[in-house]
Amino acid sequence: MDADRQLGLFEAVGIELEYMIVDQASLDVAPVADWLLTEAAGELTDEHVADGYAWNNELALHVIEFKLDGPRPSLDGLAEGFGVQVGMAGHILASRGLMLLPTGMHPWMDPASELRLWPHDSRTIYETFDRIFSCRGHGWANLQSLHLNLPFRGDEEFRRLHTAIRLLLPVLPGLAASTPVCDGRPSGLMDTRLAVYRNNCARVPSVTGQVIPEVVDGITKYKEHILARIYRDLAPLDPDGTLAHEWVNARGAIARFDRMAIEIRVLDTQECPRMDLGFCRLIVATLQALCEESWLDTRGQQQWSEVVLARALQAAIADGEAAECHDSRYLKALGLKRGGARLDQLWAHLAEQASLRGALDADSERVIEHYLRHGTLARRISRAVGEQPGRARLESVWRELASALADNQPWAG
User: Fold this and answer.
1) How many of the other CB atoms lie within 10 Å of CB of 54?
2) Is the distance from CB of 369 to CB of 233 less than 8 angstroms?
3) How far apart are alpha carbons 61 and 32 in whole angstroms?
4) What are the C-alpha distances in Å from 395 to residues 29, 185, 297, 412?
5) Pairwise CA distance, residues 265 & 51, whole Å
6) pLDDT of 87-140, one tens digit each?
7) Domain 14-407 falls in which CATH fold?
8) Per-residue pLDDT tens for 308-342?
9) How far lies 24's CA from each of 28, 33, 92, 97, in Å?
10) Which among 17, 18, 31, 19 has a CA at the least distance from the CA of 96?
């Protein structure tokens, strides 16, 4: 791919996947991402690049991120490619009695006592976050997600893509929720990660907003109405401007003008890359249909305010695929002409539409079938652990999930 050419809508994709590093014996978090990166790269670094992939640090020292080293023209082969990266890291970790653990949250981590911030090069950024917001909570210290990046070329493509993404965000937890357990017990929510994430930046509310981004009509408006407000509100607490960059925006989808892409952040990490990438293929196909105005034009897609969409998101956070949508106008905007539907029914419809367009390959078809048969990973975990699981039961289930990650295979529970 020509690195100098600005990429347009759906001409490429970027993927980032985060996992926990844990002790093999206890499954407790192990804050050794710097050691893992040193072993892989041969020197201490915050990024190790090889074979088209990169390994990166995150805020918490027990989290490692795998991502593409630059945009790819398609999702083809990425499920296997990320599986290889996971296997390579697992081999290194095993030499020290460690391993990787999937899902969007550790089931019993105590962030107040167990968080260790990344202590090297970019530590000033993390220390500033910690000073202003206090990172010793689940929403900072205990969360792993899949980030999906999609490019745009110019103002009109940005408007169309941003509009489509914000419309779809509320129902994404109905597909990808994987976090029903927190503090060693069921939380009562299917997507606990998003529930705690929403309150990360309560001290400066504009940083996260409603999680659902506001309606904007172009790049200039976005910078004026979202980014400038965040920077202004942060300034009294961050006079040096350490956080005055577009990545400080904590909405569920953020514009990355440094790479002319929008990054979707509301997706919990699944049990293996095969599931993550299968979901990505369906999401990309649905967003493409929305951008092409298959069911409703862009102006019509903008009629839902972020407040209304945030209420729908909250329902999906609580109930995952079992959440019900009774807004017939919203369902119609996604091509489903019904008075109401559960989110798994909506995703079944969207998968059928994507399949008719030839947008799903055989592997993603199997991934979606697995989801429709067994539910979200959060639902599968909930069934497996029961209503009042002890530590032994949680350990047993998460060992199965670790095996699914190592084998890059879906888990039924």
Assistant:
1) 17
2) no
3) 6
4) 13, 12, 48, 17
5) 25
6) 999 999 999 999 999 999 999 999 999 999 999 988 999 999 999 999 999 999
7) Creatine Kinase; Chain A, domain 2 (3.30.590)
8) 999 999 999 999 999 999 999 999 999 999 999 99
9) 8, 15, 13, 6
10) 31
pLDDT for 5: 74
CA–CA separation, 312 vs 377, rounded Å? Answer: 20
Q: HSE (CB half, 13 Å, CA atoms) of 132?
A: 24
Write out the DSSP string of 228-270: HHHHHHHTTT-TT-TT-SGGG--SSEEEETTTTEEEEEEEEP-
Q: What is the pTM of this model?
A: 0.97
- Express the helix, strand and coil content of the chain in percent, nearest 5 each: 45, 15, 35
**Closest by CA position to 59, among listed 134, 121, 141:** 141
User: CA 318 to CA 264: how far, in whole Å?
Assistant: 20
Sign of CA dihedral 382, 383, 388, 389: negative
CA triple 52-54-59, angle to 5 deg: 165
User: Angle at the Cα of 126 (from 50 to 205), degrees rounded to 5?
Assistant: 120
The pair of structure tokens assigned to 225 is 């109405």
